[in-house]
Amino acid sequence: LATGPRQDNSIFYEIRTYDIKPSKMKEFLEMVNKYFHFRTAHSELVGFWYSELGAVNKVVHIWKYDNFAHRTAVRQALANDKDWQGKFISVALPLMEKQHNEVAYLVPWCQLGKPPKEGGVYEWVTFQMKPGGPALWGEAFRTAINAHINTGYTKLIGVFHTEYGLLNRVHVLWWNESPDHRAAGRHRAHEDARVVAAVRDSVRFLESQQNALLIPVQCSPLK
Fold it and tell me: pTM, whole model, 2 decimals?
């Protein structure tokens, strides 16, 4: 990460977060499972989740694009897709309270991973780092992430560094077999001297941190 915010290619990821009206979440998820194939026909969906803990009535989905021209072409095609606009967008928009998006790159030392099996849960951890970018905090952050990986209790899926949105923000996506498996692993990690040392070194660059437990929807490629 200290070498820059992105990998050596033009691929980027759009992270979209929607706040759904509390009484409409069930209806919204049913709409996604029924009609989202119209959207995925246009570009690659990495994953789609709804929040279970740490946030409520939120959905998070991540899209992969080859470059910004690719995204522009996809957005234009979606605007002209009568099935997508008529069967999903026109019905889904009234169910939403707020939309937010970010553009992010995978950090240079991370490849997008997959869980070892289906049926687990995902943890979405957001770190707001101090201004200065990876040149300031990148190496310490990478060491802290690797310390958690080395405990073996969790699976790293991806580390995303924002390019548009709040800068100096890093999203880390983890997979665990279950919430209880994650809790037990976190307990062990907090007693691991390597993890403690790495976290102490990286936290001096940290401004805030939050996480959410995410459940994949039926149409999500990452399950």
Answer: 0.93
